[in-house]
Amino acid sequence: MRTATAGWTATPPGTSSGVGSPRPRTWTPAANALLNARARALRKSESGDDAKDLRTELARLGVVVKDQDKKQYWRLAK
Questions:
Q1: Is there a domain that residue 18 lies in?
Q2: All residues at 6 or more sequence positions from 52 whose CB lies less than 8 Å from its CB, including other chains
Q3: For residues 61 and 3, what is the distance between their CA atoms, to the nearest angstrom?
Q4: Domain tally for the chain?
C-alpha cells in the first residue's frame, strides 16, 4: 500500500510504487535494511534512541526521514 504526503512516501522500498519511486541508481539495499530496522525500532521503543541513530545513518545515505505517530515517511535528499 502506498501513502504519501507532499513528496514523502511510506511505500516499502523496493516495491513498485509508480510516481515518487526512489531512483534505482541512488537507492541501496543498505537504505532498505535501515528503514526496515527503523520501522521496527519505532514500534518497539519508547525512548526512540535506536530510531534516532538509524535516522542518522539514513541521512548519510541521502535518505531523509520524518515520523508521524508510529509511522515513518521517507524521501531521497535533494
A1: no
A2: none
A3: 22
A4: 1
Distance set, CA 25 to CA 3, 30, 66 (Å): 23, 13, 23
- What range does the domain containing 34 cover? 4-10+23-76
Burial (CB count within 10 angstroms: exposed 0-12, middle 13-18, buried 19+), residue 55? buried
Q: Which of 15, 1, 10, 13 is nearest to 69 (CA)?
A: 10
Interval 12-36: pLDDT, tens: 555 444 444 444 446 789 999 999 9
* Joined grid coordinates for residue 22: 526512489
Residue from 70, 71, 75 nearest 31 by CA: 75
Q: pLDDT tens digit string along 39-48?
A: 999 988 888 8
